[in-house]
Amino acid sequence: DKEVTAVRYLGGSDLLATCSGDAKVRLLDGAGKEVKNLTGAADFLNSLATTPQGGWLITGGQEGRLHAWLS
Questions:
Q1: Per-residue pLDDT averaged across 43-47, rounded?
Q2: If you average pLDDT over residues 33-57, what whole number do you get?
Q3: Which percentage of the chain shows pLDDT scores above 90?
Q4: How many CB atoms lie within 10 A of CB 29?
Q5: How far is CA 25 from the centre of its chain?
Q6: Using CA atoms, how far apart are residues 47 and 29, in angstroms rounded to an integer?
Q7: Which H helix or E strand runs over 12?
Q8: DSSP calls for 2-70
Q9: Closest Cα partner for 28 from 49, 10, 3?
Q10: Chain segment 53-69, per-residue pLDDT in tens
């Protein structure tokens, strides 16, 4: 695991989304427990955005691509 580079609240839920240097997006509950791990990026992720209701997560990173996931 590498450092967390961005954190966003998922609107309409009690979850937080994080992205990190290990190219993963993690969804965490209110206690900080990982409930979902999203993979697919190939390199360091450094930005994370969510839609207002938290349905979509968009990340960007060093590979120069945007990735989108349904949460």
A1: 93
A2: 91
A3: 72
A4: 13
A5: 4
A6: 20
A7: none
A8: --EEEEEE-TTSS-EEEEETTS-EEEE-TTS-EEEEE----S-EEEEEE-TTS-EEEEEETTS-EEEEE
A9: 10
A10: 888 999 999 999 999 99
Cα 35 to the chain's mean position, in Å?
Answer: 12
Distance from C-alpha of 29 to C-alpha of 15, rounded to nearest angstrom: 5
Amino acid at 68: A
56 has which bridge partners? 70
* pTM of the entire predicted model: 0.87
Q: Which residues are CB-neighbours of 55 under 8 A, at least 6 positions away?
A: 70, 71
Instruction: Name the residue type at position 35.
Output: V
One-letter amino acid at 15 equals L
